[in-house]
Recover the amino acids of this structure.
C-alpha cells in the first residue's frame, strides 16, 4: 500500500468541537474529514481529547469533564456538552470521524498527548480537563519523591519508572486500536517530553524503549498495515538526554513514522531534519517533518503562501519522506481559498521552484522562555555593538542562476529590520562576504507606527534590491551586520529584529507580473 506523504493534524477541538453550538450534528463533526477532501492530504492525525481526558466514548480512559459540577471555562464546557450529547445520541465522536475518513479513503491515526503536567483541583481553569487518575495518583509524578527541583519542567509529569503510569497510558492506545477502524496510532512525545527525573534518565531510557516496543507490537498486531507514528523534536541529542533513544527505536524497527517537530506552533524555515533523515536511511522508518502555520512576528501572524513555499522547499531538499501540517493550521479556519491554494502546491517542490518565495529568520516570540534543550534557538533578536559583527546563517532552496539564465527571475529583495536605531547610526551589511552597496538600498522609517500587530516602536527597515553579483546562493548563506557608529545621545541597545529574503519570479521570459506590474504601472487587458 502506498504510504502517505501529506498528513494533517486536527486537534479535535479548536476548529471542531469548540466551534459549534450544542447539540453538535454528526455532519458538523464529519467536517474534520470533509474540509480536507480534494486536497493532497492523504492522512488525518486526530488528537484524543486533551490527553489526560478524552472527548470520545472511552472505557479505558476518562471522559473530559466527567468530574466537573460547575464550569469556570465556557468553551471547555461546550466541548464536554457536544461530546456528551453526541455519545448519548449514538454517535461516538471518534467513530464518526474514523468512519468518515475510511469512506473517503483517507488514512486515520488517532493521537495521544502522552504527557501533561500536574494541575491542582480548583486552581485556575485547566483543572476541568484533568482525570481523577492524575489527582488520585500524585505519587506517580516525577517530583513526588522530593529529590527533583520544583522548577524542573517535568516536575508534575507522570514518572514512567512506575508501571501504573505506563499501563494507564498504554490502555488508551490499546482500547483505541482494538475498538476503532484506524490505520495506526500516533504517540505525541513532543508536547511535554519529560518521562523521568533528571538523575534517573540513564535507568529510564530502556524503560521507555520497552514501552514503545509494547505499543508498537499492539498497534501493528491489531490489524494489517497498521503503523506506529511517534512525534519527537528535531534535536536527537536533546531527546536522548530526556530518555528517548530514538536511534535505538529506529534500529529495532519499532517506529514506522517519526513525526519530527522543530518548534511547536511557530515556523522555523531553517529547521534541520538531516540528522534523523540520516539515521533512518535504509531502514523501515520514514521521516515526516511538521510544518507550522504561524509566523508570529511584529508584523505578521500567519504564514503567507510565499513563506510556505520557502519553508516547504527547504524541508523537501533535506530528503524527508513527507510533511504533517501541524495543529496550528487551525488559525486558517474556516478554511477558504487561500488555505486550499497552499495545500495544492505543498507536495510539489518542482512546482514551487519558480514561484515567489519569502524566507525569514526565526525571531524569538515575546512569550515565555524557550526550551533550548529541544528547540532550535532563535537567532533573532541579535544585539549589535560597535565594531563587533553579528553573523546570521540561513538556507534557501532557490537556484537563482539557473532560472535567471532563462529569464525567469524578476527580483531578489533582502530586508533587515533594526530596532532602537536612529538616522545617525551607521551600519554595514555583507552577504556571503560581499558588502551590499548603498545604491541598492532603500531605508524605511518605522521608528514609530500608529498601528501594529504587537510593537508600534519598530525601528528602520533596510531594504536591498540585490543585483546578480550579490544574490544569495542555493544552500547555506551568511549575513554579516556590523554597527560602525552609534548615535552618542541614546542608551538603549540596538538589535536586529528581522531578516527576510524574497525571491520573485516571472511565469516566462519577459512575462508581466499580475495585473499591475510594479515597474510598468496600471494597465488594462484588451480583448482585441
Amino acid at each position: 500500500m502506498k504510504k502517505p506523504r501529506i498528513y494533517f493534524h486536527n486537534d479535535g477541538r479548536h476548529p471542531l468541537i469548540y466551534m459549534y453550538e450544542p447539540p453538535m450534528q454528526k455532519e458538523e463533526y464529519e467536517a474534520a474529514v470533509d474540509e480536507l477532501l480534494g486536497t493532497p492530504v492523504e492522512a488525518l492525525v486526530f488528537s484524543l481529547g486533551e490527553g489526560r481526558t478524552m472527548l470520545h466514548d472511552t472505557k479505558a480512559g476518562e471522559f473530559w469533564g466527567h468530574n466537573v459540577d460547575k464550569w469556570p471555562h465556557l468553551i471547555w464546557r461546550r466541548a464536554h456538552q457536544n461530546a456528551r450529547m453526541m455519545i448519548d445520541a449514538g454517535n461516538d465522536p471518534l467513530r464518526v470521524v474514523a468512519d468518515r475518513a475510511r469512506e473517503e479513503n483517507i488514512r486515520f491515526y488517532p493521537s495521544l498527548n502522552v504527557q501533561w503536567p500536574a494541575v491542582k483541583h480548583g486552581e485556575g481553569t485547566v483543572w476541568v480537563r484533568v482525570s481523577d487518575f492524575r489527582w488520585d495518583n500524585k505519587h506517580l509524578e516525577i517530583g513526588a519523591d522530593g529529590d527533583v527541583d520544583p522548577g524542573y519542567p517535568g516536575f508534575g509529569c507522570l514518572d514512567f519508572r512506575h508501571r501504573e503510569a505506563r499501563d494507564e497510558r498504554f490502555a488508551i492506545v490499546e482500547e483505541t486500536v482494538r475498538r476503532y477502524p484506524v490505520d495506526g496510532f500516533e504517540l505525541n512525545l513532543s508536547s511535554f517530553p519529560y518521562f523521568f527525573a533528571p538523575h534517573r534518565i540513564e535507568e529510564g531510557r530502556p524503560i521507555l524503549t520497552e514501552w514503545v516496543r509494547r505499543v508498537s507490537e499492539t498497534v501493528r498486531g491489531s490489524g494489517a498495515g497498521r503503523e506506529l507514528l511517534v512525534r519527537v523534536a528535531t534535536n536527537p541529542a536533546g531527546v536522548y538526554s530526556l530518555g528517548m533513544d530514538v536511534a535505538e527505536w529506529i534500529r529495532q524497527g519499532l517506529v514506522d513514522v517519526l513525526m519530527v517537530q522543530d518548534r511547536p506552533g511557530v515556523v522555523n524555515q531553517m529547521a534541520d531534519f538531516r540528522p534523523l533523515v540520516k539515521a533512518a536511511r535504509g531502514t523501515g522508518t520514514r521521516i515526516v517533518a511538521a510544518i507550522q502555520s504561524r509566523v508570529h512576528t511584529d508584523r505578521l501572524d500567519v504564514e503567507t503562501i510565499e513563506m510556505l513555499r520557502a519553508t516547504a522547499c527547504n524541508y523537501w531538499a533535506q530528503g524527508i519522506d513527507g510533511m504533517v501540517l501541524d495543529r496550528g493550521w487551525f488559525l486558517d479556519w474556516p478554511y477558504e481559498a487561500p488555505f486550499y491554494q497552499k495545500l495544492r502546491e505543498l507536495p510539489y517542490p518542482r512546482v514551487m521552484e519558480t514561484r515567489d518565495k519569502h524566507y525569514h529568520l526565526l525571531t524569538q516570540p515575546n512569550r515565555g522562555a524557550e526550551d533550548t534543550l529541544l528547540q532550535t534557538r532563535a537567532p533573532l533578536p541579535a544585539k549589535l555593538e560597535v565594531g563587533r559583527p553579528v553573523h546570521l546563517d540561513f538556507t534557501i532552496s532557490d537556484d537563482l542562476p539557473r532560472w535567471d539564465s532563462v529569464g525567469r527571475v524578476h527580483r531578489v529583495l533582502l530586508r533587515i529590520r533594526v530596532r532602537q536605531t536612529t538616522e545617525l547610526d551607521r551600519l554595514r551589511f555583507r552577504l556571503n562576504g560581499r558588502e551590499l552597496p548603498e545604491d541598492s538600498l532603500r531605508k524605511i522609517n518605522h521608528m514609530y507606527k500608529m498601528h501594529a500587530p504587537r510593537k508600534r516602536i519598530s525601528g528602520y527597515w533596510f531594504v536591498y534590491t540585490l543585483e546578480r553579483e550579490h544574490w544569495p546562493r542555493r544552500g547555506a548563506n551568511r549575513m554579516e551586520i556590523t554597527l560602525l557608529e552609534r548615535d552618542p545621545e541614546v542608551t538603549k541597545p540596538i538589535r536586529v529584529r528581522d531578516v527576510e529574503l524574497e525571491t520573485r519570479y516571472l511565469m516566462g521570459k519577459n512575462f508581466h507580473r499580475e495585473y499591475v506590474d510594479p515597474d510598468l504601472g496600471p494597465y488594462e487587458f484588451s480583448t482585441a
